[in-house]
# Entry
Amino acid sequence: MTQAKPSIAQDILWRLEALAFDVVIAFARILPVDAVSDFGAWFFKTLGPLTGAHRVAEINLRIVFPQASDAEIADLLKAQWDNTGRTFLELLIMDRIIGAGDRVEIVGGERFDEIAARQEPVVFVSGHFANFEVMPAAIVNSPVKCQITYRAMNNPHVEKRVRDYRFRYGVRYFAPKGGDGARELLGALGRGESVALMNDQKFNGGVAAPFFGRTCHTAPGPSRLALRFGTVLQPMSVQRGHKARFRVVVHPPIHLEHTGDLTADIAAGVRKVNAFIEEQVLARPAEWFWTHKRWPNETYKRGVSR
# Structure
């Protein structure tokens, strides 16, 4: 299906956004890595509380930490803006972070060697933890052959710049759209290649499953793929160290049950993924992407009663 041609006004706006992107990335590339990270933290901590995303983050935090005091929630809001700001500015200099050699530590990296040696395709799953771009870079710089998915940006000019930029540190994403995307993932697993997907955001029409005690919808794709190919879900997380230093953790695999009831097995897989995400969020709450509307829209209209 061909995409509709944008209006002249839309294209001009997109080109101006791309120009702004070029200016910001040029500025980021002349500064030391930690200075870029510090600037992102300062900028988002200053402006983030003035945006609608601040209320979304507060509602999410109150869902996850219902017993927290107002002061504790305020501290977490500040800390999550710090991490979010650092992450978004660090995305502009990821090649310098990945290429530094001493900024990313891999814990459990022997699992990569095991997957590669066995030629055993797995379904990598993770969430938006710390600087989440560090995870795909760790996978593609390992011996594992992997297809990594992402959601394409609306602005095609910025999209091209980002894809070209990611190529600098070895990450070649593809953006699945409808049936074509599913076919690419199936083809990769059929060839013995692994696939990697984020599985912590709302997916309308997905599996309704509990997440921090409230029902929300989660994409069934990773669990469905693992069950279809008789493989495991391979969870990973990223943890922030000092400023722009990171630890990538390759966790023990999640084994799914084959009971003969595919719908029930997929739902059980989704619940296991949600439990993994919950565990990581509780362990390092400042480092999750709290500004995403993870729960149903009505939650954000009503707010959370104390």
